[in-house]
Amino acid sequence: MSAVDQLLNRRPAVGFAVGVVRDGSLDLFRGHGFADLASGTPVTEETVFRIGSISKTFTAVAVMQLWEQGLVDLDAPANRYLRAYRLIPARPGDRPATLRHLLTHTAGLPEVVRTSDVFRPLFGETVRVGQPVPTLARYYGGALRLAAEPGTRFIYTDHDFTTLGQLVEDVSGTPLHRYLRGHVFEPLGMADTDLVRSARIRERLATGYTLGSRGPRPVRDYELVTAAGGGAYSTMADLGRYVAALLGGGANRHGTVLKPATVAMMFEPQYRPDPRVPGIGLAFWRGSIGGHRIVEHGGILPGFTAELFLAPDDGLGIVTYTNGARNPMLWLPGETAALLAGLLGVPDWTVRTDVPQHPEVWSDICGWYRTPGRLTDLRAREMTGLGVEVFVRGGQLMLRCLSPVPVAYQGFPLYPDDPADPYVFRIDLSRFGIGTGRVVFSGAAGTGTTAVHFDLLPLSARKQTAATNPRRWLAGALAATGAALAVRRWRARR
Fold first, then answer.
1. Do 96 and 206 belong together in one domain?
2. Beta-sheet pairing, 49-50 with 86-88
3. d(CA 68, CA 72)
4. What residue numbers bound the domain in which 43 lies?
5. Residues 193, 197, 202, 205: is their CA dihedral positive or negative?
6. Do 171 and 475 contact (CB within 8 A), yes or no?
7. Domain check: are 368 and 328 in the same one?
8. 484 falls in which pLDDT band (50, 70, 90)?
9. Same domain, yes or no, for 329 and 401?
10. Same domain (yes/no): 337, 405
11. Is the domain of 270 the same as that of 327?
């Protein structure tokens, strides 16, 4: 694939792999670079990589197996099934968190359980290899407190799927890693996939690297306490079998793990802050490429980044991963989507230039919108900061993130994206390797615009009064940041 060579020219990587699945099997594999630099071991189909949050989809499959058997109800309180610890409401009288809430990151669980964990590796969810991994009952101290009422907003967190993993253990009476091996991995022929670092995993496990100004450096090795949310190990050969099963309605050439109707339900929208954005299914993100329906999930851990994209209606899937690149979490999703677009025969997609602007709605849209939640909801803060501001500059409608990150604060033009709806826009993020993202504005009749919604993550921000806009504070923070960088550069030149 020449497109892969071009990608690797743009995005240097210690090790990289791409696999294309169609007609029920891994149809194409391309490995590049090294699984381990010290030994000179190349990347192959059998190299074991850490796949991060793609693990969440395995946990979701296990939950749906219990649902098919009538052992759990997706809309029942999770506390009905949990034995190891309890979910505590954020406020008395809040509705209980259900399994469906947990499967869609709308249960209200925080991204970081303890504020002090912000300063620890992977938010305190790791232990060094060789140290005992605490039980979740001990890790959570018997209770896990919610940060918001379930069903009211989206918060991406490992603790949703970690709790689902514990629930699978409590209902089945089997440790999760054994349950997944016996009910998901072995039936699908995934002999080299596991949730724990078994002997077969250790022998072929790739080393994770950071890629900085001095070249590749190995990351510290660790185990995840929150394994159900991000701890799995797998190979391209096994992920090819897994993707084939998802495209095959829950079955591949080796066996069956779910019914076709169940897999279809997992891909359907289960949470959307607005009907004009694709939202999330049960564990899987939803989207489209050139009119083709897409579901996907990524995985990010220090030293490892992975992406899994499916075009279910086309019977086509693609998996990519790397064990050492610069900021792969920013570009790997977009680059993988672009590879899939090429396979689908979709031309390069960008913002539309054939939809007219509607300046008559600008005064309604302009203002600042606050992103709710804790400052420790880091993925939301990385994307929008304290919120977003919509304004007009040089005759162009703009959106900027209220963040001290200069490139986010400078703003992005809003390009109309729907000829029939002047409140639907798209922003161009291609310079970050992300592609484009949809932005839609909503409001109730007679009230004007009250919220903005995004499709990159199903986040929403609510419109606030101008007097509360933190822009002045952020402008000061940006100036201070710029001054500090200038001083640093001056010192470096002395």
1. yes
2. unpaired
3. 8
4. 2-344
5. positive
6. no
7. no
8. very low
9. no
10. no
11. yes
Q: Report the CATH number that the domain containing residue 176 is assigned in CATH.
A: 3.40.710.10
d(CA 170, CA 186): 21
> In this predicted structure, what is the pLDDT of residue 481?
47
| Residue 352 is assigned to a structural domain of this protein | no
Q: Which amino acid is at 479?
A: A
Q: Do 387 and 410 share a structural domain?
A: yes
Backbone angles phi, psi at 256, to 5 degrees: -130, 140
Which residues, other chains included, contact 470 with Cβ-Cβ below 8 Å and sequence gap of 6+? Answer: 368, 386, 387, 402
Task: Kindly report, residue by residue over 66-94, the tens digit of the pLDDT.
Answer: 999 999 999 999 999 999 999 999 999 99
CA distance 60 to 229: 10
Q: Which long-range contacts (CB under 8 A, 24 or more apart) does 5-13 make?
A: 7/335, 7/339, 8/32, 11/325, 11/326, 11/328, 11/331, 11/335, 11/433, 12/211, 12/325, 12/326, 13/211, 13/322, 13/323, 13/324, 13/325, 13/328
Same domain, 368 and 411: yes
Q: Is residue 185 part of a domain?
A: yes
Q: What is the CATH number of the domain that holds 455?
A: 2.40.128.50
Q: Taking 80 as the threshold, does the pLDDT of residue 492 lie above it? A: no
The number of domains in the chain is 2
Rounded CA-CA distance 285/336 in Å is: 14
Select from 344, 379, 401 the last residue of a domain.
Answer: 344
Q: Is 351 inside any structural domain?
A: no
Closest to 136 measured CA to CA, from 107, 171, 164: 164
Which residue, 387, 414, 416, is CA-closest to 403? 387
Q: Determine the Cα–Cα distance for residues 62 and 43; give it in Å rounded to an integer.
A: 30
Q: From the CB of residue 451, how many other CB atoms can be counted at a distance below 10 Å?
A: 16
Q: Which amino acid is at 245?
A: A
- Altogether, the residues listed in the chain come to a count of 494
Least reliable range by pLDDT among 7-11, 17-21, 261-265 = 7-11
Residue at 485 is within a domain: no
CA 387 – CA 400 distance, rounded (Å):
9
pLDDT digits (tens, 9 = 90+) for 415-464: 999 999 999 999 998 777 677 889 999 997 778 999 999 988 888 999 99
Q: Are residues 322 and 438 in the same domain?
A: no
